[in-house]
């Protein structure tokens, strides 16, 4: 399954790279504006992250595990009783959103000391969607979710860039149907 999901993510990455070419956007190594706060990830994303974590040196994995555990502790203080497998559906959207808002300033456990994503090639889908507005093939606009877009001239007014999202989403759903696990948080995977 990971190869199939990886190919799907690579298709999104190609779209992003082509769409970003020649544009003044902050999405590059060192920008961490969107790398804060707990967020939910799919079982396929969790599997990709585990694969990426396994490739890291032992000391880096230990640091990520420590940071993930610390963030999970903060999460538990805000959502008492929530525990492994950290299924987002069990606490509901309202509780998850409230917790995410409270911890919005917390850095992702995958961030290194220089602001680099230590699992960049294995980062979740949501991390790949932020930074450019998208126009789906059915005319829906997925807005740019970059939290610092107003700091770059013309960035926040950028026209949505076409992407064949409907077929992409259909393939993603097919992958999810074949993937074991639950929708969880990146902190839960980091702490494993």
Structure description:
With 192 residues, the protein is mainly alpha-helical. The protein has one domain. 45% of the residues lie in helices and 6% in strands. The protein is built from 7 helices and 5 strands, in the order αβααααβββαβα. The protein has a 3-stranded mixed β-sheet, with no helix packed on it. It has a two-stranded antiparallel ribbon with strand order 1-5. A hairpin with a 4-residue loop joins strand 2 and strand 3.
- The backbone outline, from C-alpha atoms, is globular
Q: How far do the termini sit from each other? A: 21 Å
Order of helices and strands: HEHHHHEEEHEH
Strand content: 5-15%
Count of helical regions: 7
Q: How many structural domains in the coordinates?
A: 1
Largest sheet: 3 strands, mixed
Radius of gyration: 17 Å
Structural class: mainly alpha
Tell me the strand order in the biggest sheet.
3-2-4
Mean pLDDT: 93
- The low-confidence runs, each spanning 5 or more residues with pLDDT under 50, are none
Q: Please provide the count of β strands.
A: 5
Helix amount: 40-55%
Q: What is the topological layout?
A:
Elements: H1 2-20, E1 40-41, H2 43-54, H3 58-78, H4 92-102, H5 125-129, E2 134-136, E3 141-142, E4 161-163, H6 165-177, E5 184-185, H7 186-191
Features:
single chain, 192 residues, mainly alpha, three-stranded mixed β-sheet, two-stranded antiparallel ribbon, 5 strands, 45% helix, globular
